[in-house]
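As noted in the main text, all predictions were made from sequence alone. Below is one such record, for Myotubularin related protein 10.
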Amino acid sequence: MFSTKPTKPTFKSYLPPVQTEKPIDPPIKKVEPRLLLGEIVVNEVNFVRKCINNENGHDDLWGKLICTNFKVSFIPQEDPPKQNAHLSHLLLAEHDVALTCLDQVVTVNDAKGKKKVLGSNQKLKFNPTELILYCKDLRIIRFCFDEAGPESAKKVCLAIAHYAHPADLHLLFGFEYQGRRYHERKAAAEINESMPRMSPQTPVYDCPSDWDREIKRTGATEWRVCSINERYNVSQSLPEYIVVPASLADQDLRQFANCYSDNRIPLWCWNHPNGSALVRMCNVADPIAQKKFEQRIFNAITKSHPTCSEVIKLDLEKSLPNILDIQSAFCKFRQSCVIDPFEESEERWFSCIENSRWLEYVRAFLKQSAEIVFLMEVKSVSVVITEEEDRDLNCAVSSLVQLMLDPHYRSLSGFQSLVQKEWVMAGHRFLDRCNHLKRNDKEECPLFLLFLDCVWQMINQYPAAFEFTETYLTVLSDSMWIPVHGTFLFNSCLQRTQHLTEFAKTKAIPPGEDQSVYFPPVWEWSQQFSAKEQTLFNNPMYVGKSVARVQNGEVKTFKRTKKAYSASVKGSPASVVNGLRDGEGTLSRRVSFMSELKPEFSSVKDVVESPSERFFRDWFSRPFDQQGLLLPLLLPSHIAVWKLFFLRWVPEACIPKGGTVTAYHKLCQLVDEIEMLQCQLKHYKGPSPCITPEPSPCKPHSVQRRMYFNACSADESPSLPDFLTSSFPFTPVGNLCRRSTLGTPITKFLNGAKIWLSTETLNDTV
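Prediction:
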């Protein structure tokens, strides 16, 4: 009997195969990461599945999971379709997460029912089947190791956990990256004989000239720049140069410093045109010293006022939540927004948001700031705000007060200088509050995020008063977790100087080189985004200091005065006059703030108005100047959830072709078209008696365009692009993967109703 088993061929052909009509499968793509300067691959694992859809695995991505000394990177085996709605980052790809952005690294073994939160240098006693990354920007990313090697999966999980917990600050990737980047740029710039420097639009307040310009801009003629803290001889948490009353001598300041925590001399923040000043300081522990030295300092502040007005001291710790309260509120708020499944929490979602107290704290900071605005604007008194260390609550309140009073800080460059002055240089402990080294969770607090939320509330209420957008605020918050710039990495100016000086030595950077050159601040946005992506920061509705107009072929400037503004909106609906959305009128604005100051005001007719109540009532009842004072609406119904930040990764909250982006898209196109017409009119030469007049259009306008969406051409459709969603320019696809999404209670009810109706119809037919 012969065997049916086929025999192996003994002849091997070395000729290339003959091409047939059947296409040959393309070779498997070599999956390689995109590495930055100084970035190295630490560990990797193949055949990993990134979860995209929980209902079925059809949309899941297969590829390689890589851990480097900078990020966790997932590289799909197949190139996904290009997404126009995705914000392109120059340092991070679509599926990348910076290691400093990781809040928790959780490994899961479904078979054994085990779950473990990994820390640095920890052992893992089981082979993980899943890896869940909880990120500080509120993303939740899930990877499955169905087909991956168990040992390789375990090693990459341990590597991610280890490098997400650096033992020291200098081990953060930014130090290696910026060292390599400096020398590469220096070599490329040798032909120009100079290194490119940061744009001067954002002062960093590390030299006397920056402070001098701010003094001159605000008209604080009775204040001076003091240099007694050069080389940090007096205080280790203050900048080298501070602004103090001109009547105080350096010798007196050295004497006063000894009674303050960390020798922090009171800091000047801002001067009102009427002469009142905003000053911040820490509390004095010794009551005797407090009475002695504070009186002399307050006398000096009084002398700096044109009318020698009194000084009012406010202790913010008595009226605002502390660091632990804010952290607790944020954790609860985040739990409701992104962690709890919607199908389980929809019915109690609003109560969970309210019980977290996050919006209550946002409202408290805005209310406290508005009260200080009244004291400075109406009473013309100088205000000194105090807290225990002058490095947390004071940062937020002083910034909000200046934002309400000074339109300069509502511009993009002005806002950046405000953050640099009141947060970075004033010594807010970003290293501890962001918990970059993950050493002490009790010190962690999203106070800067709370401040950005307060700013967003005002942008939401007055959309034409700010030059920047909520996308800018969101990106600024996300930048805290990208350790390639020096703005959010340190606790103080001294710590920054010490680390960057040591860094310069180890990287052979010449002594005396400007720190902003070899370790740029976050304000150099070209590090992270292209010029096109940066146009997302520009608000098309912004009403600046002047409005351009064209007369007789020349572009002139029309300054909109308060009188002209009031006349231009006379007779308009209240919602237009007051710059509000959703038809909110004058009455709602008046009642909102008055009910905050005195709940019974609107119901009791015989109540005598206080000066503050009268001021707020008058302000809310008349048209306001976009370039003047701004006061926030403070009824609970006016304080909203910052959806673009908190809900951008939640698929259930993503509205296709919905949300504020629809108006933003149309406004961008309108502004872009207006600017193109202005450019053409500016270059129009006018008719000539001998030559037929022809338009003199601008040269290609694409380089100069400020808006992200450009005006449509004649052959383009003006309709809304399909890729726009309420999460634009972010996309929730693949960023938040819950284990089961079976539908919300409303969906279940509707499905049940359909079944019931079909049954009733069937019975009637029978």
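The CA atoms of residues 235 and 465 lie 38 Å apart. The two ends are 70 Å apart (CA to CA). These features were considered when defining construct boundaries for the mutagenesis experiments described in Section 2.9.
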